[in-house]
Amino acid sequence: MYAIVDIETTGGHASANGITEIAIFIYDGSQIVQQFESLINPGVPIPRYIQSLTGITDDMVASAPKFADVAGEVFALLKDKIFVAHNVNFDYSFLQYHLLQAGYDLRTKKLCTVRLGRKIVPGLPSYSLGNLCRSLQINVEQRHRAAGDAAATVRLFGLYLSLDTNNAISAALKTTSKEQFLPTNLPPDHVKTLPSNPGVYYFHDQKGKVIYVGKAKNIKKRVNSHFTGNNPSRQRQEFLRNIHSISHEVTGTELMANILESVEIKRLWPKYNRSQKNIEFKYGFYTFEDQLGYLRLVIERRRKYTMPLHSFPLLVQGHQMLKGLIREFDLCPRLCFLQKGDGACKPLTGHKCKGACDKKELPEYYNLRVRAAIIHMQKAQPSFMIVDAGRDAAEQSCILMEKGRFYGMGYIPRETAITNGMDVKEWLTQYPDNEYILNLIHQFAGANNSRLLKFS
Asked: Secretion signal: which residues (predicted)?
């Protein structure tokens, strides 16, 4: 037995909007055996554009029952039926949410007449209810009213039953079928053909623009997890409606998937990714020669398209490192911009300036120590490779860290001998790094020493 449902609402997501009208037709596959329809007082004003669309006004629902008043009857009609609607996830999410608020937990199988239409009557220009019914010569009375749209959906579903020679309906109802959970606009083949490998997946909107990037140890399993449940929030419902296609890139390891996800989020700036958009090193060490010929070591905010000597997220970390270099290499605090103003500097505790700030030390002597400090700073940063599984048995993956910076990653033939970073660079793709990526790599390196190849 099928419960064919249509509702009208005050907005697009259940958790912040109310139902203004509901119609339920109980259909046995050949005729309507029971029906329920009612205006509903949503408890909030109906937006003007929705009043214009549906014709339902605040005055019309003022004396109508609230949803809680009819929830018991609605639940009794739906609880043991197959829930059918055009764009079923919208109607189902609203009713499930509002029934739960009234104390009823709705859990039924669902059928979407949009998705079924694409399988049973493929090739039509549009699968919106109005356009679909026009294409199939189904009369719709009172469009955008619950009873009118539900009655049209009954006739549409009856036609599907008669034309379903490939058993699309029974296939969608199988317990193993995940199609009823998929976004309405996403073709099932986009999910069925996904691999079970580690990698990165991309959700695209109707124009092909990437709206979300995710990483996974198992791409197929992770993608399917996005579509389970019926979260009624506006963000989730809008997110699902906007998914029209999926693409992916397989990686050799889960670590590579995590790194690539971070790179792609920063590159594509997808609408529905919230985290990692602002993960970056804010400060770095830079060097330049002033007008008198002295090399100046300075902490500045990271500049686009420049590569600092060393980067760090917090200014205090840079100051601590700079003070250590000043003490160890007898650098001048004022020439390192640690002290401001003219004249001689005030040496740090346990340190004596040799007078470069007061021009008592020639630039060529002072610069030797600055260069030594830079070499020391760079040597202190580790260089190593993480060599791990490839995408298939013929290759191995490689992640290269060079002097504390993430150089890039890629795949090399399994028989290739590796002794240092120069051996593999031709196989690797260079990527920008950030604090998140470096933390990922260092955490993995600390726990997987057997996969590291260190070099100077």
From this structure: none
Residues 333, 407, single domain; the answer is no
Q: Are residues 149 and 222 in the same domain?
A: no
How does pLDDT run across 80-92, given as a tens digit for each residue?
999 999 989 889 9
Q: How far is CA 163 from the centre of its chain?
A: 39
Do the domain assignments include residue 251?
Answer: yes
**pLDDT of 32 strictly over 90:** yes
Q: What is the distance between the alpha carbons of residues 133 and 117, in angstroms, rounded to a whole number?
A: 11
Estimate to the nearest angstrom the gap between the alpha carbon of 393 and the chain centroid.
30
Residue 238 domain boundaries: 188-268
Q: Is the pLDDT of residue 108 over 80?
A: yes
Q: What is the DSSP string of 263-306?
A: HHHHHH--TT--TTTT----EEEEEEE-TTS-EEEEEEE--TT-
The secondary element (H helix, E strand) that includes residue 34 is: strand 32-39
Residue with tokens 């409606």: 241
Exposed, middle or buried, 77 (CB in 10 Å: 0-12/13-18/19+)? Answer: middle
164 and 305, same domain (yes or no): no
Question: In 79-145, which residue ranges form alpha helices assigned H by DSSP?
Answer: 88-101, 113-120, 129-135
For residue 78, tell me if it sits in a domain.
yes
Asked whether residue 336 is domain-assigned, the answer is: yes
Residues 213 and 270: their CA atoms lie apart, in Å, by 7
Q: How far apart are CA 410 and CA 398, in angstroms?
A: 6
Tens-digit pLDDT profile for residues 40-55:
999 999 999 899 989 9
- Determine the Cα–Cα distance for residues 297 and 337; give it in Å rounded to an integer: 8
Classify residue 183: in a domain, yes or no: no
- Cβ atoms 268, 213 nearer than 8 A: yes
**Nearest Cα to Cα of residue 343 among 359, 367, 330:** 359
